[in-house]
Amino acid sequence: MTALTLSTAAAPGLRADAIVIGVSKGDKGPVVAPGAEAVDQAYDGGLAGVLETLGASGAEGEITKLPAPSGFKTPLVVAVGLGALPEKDVNGGAYGAEALRRASGLAARALAGSKKAAFALPVADAAAVGAIGEGALLGAYSFDVYKENAQNGTAAKGKKNGKAPLAEAVVLGAKPRDKAHKAAVERATAVSEELNRARDLVNTPPNDLNPEAFAAVAQAAAKENGIKVQVLDEKALAKGGYGGILGVGSGSASAPRLVKLSYTHSKAKKHLAFVGKGITYDSGGISLKPAGHNETMKCDMSGAAAVFAAVVTAARLGLEVNVTGWLALAENMPSGSATRPGDVLRMYSGKTVEVLNTDAEGRLVLADALWAASEEKPDAIVDVATLTGAMVLALGNRTFGVMANDEAFRSAVHEAAEEVGEPAWPMPLPEHLRKGMDSPTADIANMGERMGGGLVAALFLREFVGEGITWAHLDIAGPAFNEQGPFGYTPKGGTGSGVRTLVRLAELTASGDLG
Q: Cα(127)–Cα(359) distance, rounded to whole angstroms?
């Protein structure tokens, strides 16, 4: 993991491999952002012109490298685009957290192989310090544990394209002894480390991460962070009547698990429950996915990874809120013992479900976990799942849908997501779609109308939320796994989608500011 430090040192005298500066897109060309004054002065105030000559415009996602000026102890200047200049009447004219986060993440990724980089980006307050630090830690992420170093024949663990991730990121202009700045770094470190651990889980091949292995990871992390953990194996699930989880996992040689993580604080006044879909591999079951649709299905446990990371982060930050995480873990495989289309499952709630499509399995494991979470009467439940391709069609690959049984809570979740830089969009729950799940055989079917499939899935889940409990559903099917190239602080592969939203919800609940 990249180390994150603060420094008030002057840029010219700092020993590092590179100094990172920000550049904005002005009306008449690139504009050097605050924080880079010393570098600009070394170019006699002409740094913007030099960058423009090199083709830089200040656009977001743009990066330009040039030799450091004479007198600097760093050999390289990395100019990263911040996008449009901030409006003076918005946030006091300061750069937004997400712009800083993306810029520092882009720079950290570009500096793979470096030991130390100084980030001389705009530091207006502690929030900016946290955003720069978080972006650097997330952007430096690498998952290469399964690649081999051709030179020495050993696993190139923790290396990115043959280069180790940036070893240290120094935020210039931030004060090491300032309480707010120190707290921002501590938060950025905790969030980023656990989000990166979620990415690791999503990226781990399913032959190494089955339900039992995932549960073991959760148990180890719980022990390290003072979190109470309970794991229900297949025998306990059968005894408890968890028909949904058992039904989905029945076709696999790897038995399912339900993991409960409980973080409590002595001063907590509220209780949140997070529920995550954890299908460690989804073949579709008997309703087998066609070729081209199953190659990345190791990511179908991204919701459980997000919940796991969020609970551990809450514990590390010592938030004054009780948080319970439920990881519904199963592998969906076809075999002679697999659930068939037409089978009826009796769920943990007692309700029966006619399975019309075994590839609509996520809602079945979530249903059991939602009912188990409801039994504890939390103040709110939020489930996270790579649930439907329909949501990807609706919102694309970078935005997740937010649905809820309470409009105010849906708005609060949406605002929390946007605040931490996770694109999200509120979606409705049209009541007329519920009728499509009526079954002549069981209480409800696991499929309904094809159009609006993401909304239908959420309506199904709502059936398993306890009466009177506020609930929201995050369908992260689009942003959970990035199959295109990396951008900003987001790598290719597992992204850790949902983690920061859940953590922010826990923080807002702890402070009494949620909704």
A: 42
Q: Which amino acid is at 470?
A: T
SS3 content of the chain, % helix, strand, coil (to 5): 35, 20, 40
Question: Largest Cα–Cα distance of the chain, in whole Å?
Answer: 80
In angstroms, the Cα distances linking 350 to 122, 182, 377, 463 are 56, 50, 18, 12
Determine which one of 160, 363, 410, 434 is catalytic: 363
The angle at the Cα of 57, spanning 137 to 160, to the nearest 5 degrees, equals 30
* Residue 411: DSSP 8-state: H
CB 504 within 8 A of CB 413: no
- Residue closest to 364 by CA, chosen among 340, 382, 347, 381: 347
> pLDDT of 204-214, one tens digit each?
999 999 999 99
Which is catalytic among the residues 163, 182, 289, 462?
A: 289
Give the pLDDT band (50/70/90) at residue 147.
Answer: confident
When pLDDT is cut at 50, 70 and 90, the band that residue 155 belongs to is very low
The pLDDT of residue 123 is above 90 = yes
Does 289 participate in catalysis according to the annotation? Answer: yes
Q: Is 217 helix (H, G, I), strand (E, B) or coil?
A: helix
435 classed as catalytic: no
**Which of 280, 206, 263, 282 shows the shortest CA–CA distance to 502?**
263
Among candidate residues 177, 143, 135, the one with its CA nearest the CA of residue 161? 143
Give the CA distances from residue 460 to residues 192, 236, 444, in Å, rounded to whole numbers and listed in that order: 33, 25, 8
* pLDDT greater than 80 at residue 316: yes
The pLDDT tens digits for 421-471 are: 999 999 999 999 999 999 999 999 999 999 999 999 999 999 999 999 999
